[in-house]
User: Fold YciI family protein from Bradyrhizobium agreste.
Amino acid sequence: MLFAIHAIDRTGALPTRLANYDAHKTFLSDTSRFGVRIVMSGPLVADDGATMIGSLFLIEAPGRAEVEAFNRADPFAAAGIWENVTITGFLRRQG
Assistant:
């Protein structure tokens, strides 16, 4: 099953995001221990097209519990970067 993770940064989180970026990238490089696969991911950006304001993931996983465990273990979550995280099932229609 596919799941979308939509995470919005808390106000003023950009310096913390940048300080934890390498740990976040390393974490994302091997998701096998969670039983999930990243289909695609990347930062959400402000209307200027550059300023990072959140994260978006499309995850393939057996169920929601695996996605929640994966998300909780992300260094960005541990650093308190995200103010609001929504995990929603997703049905692929195109692409």
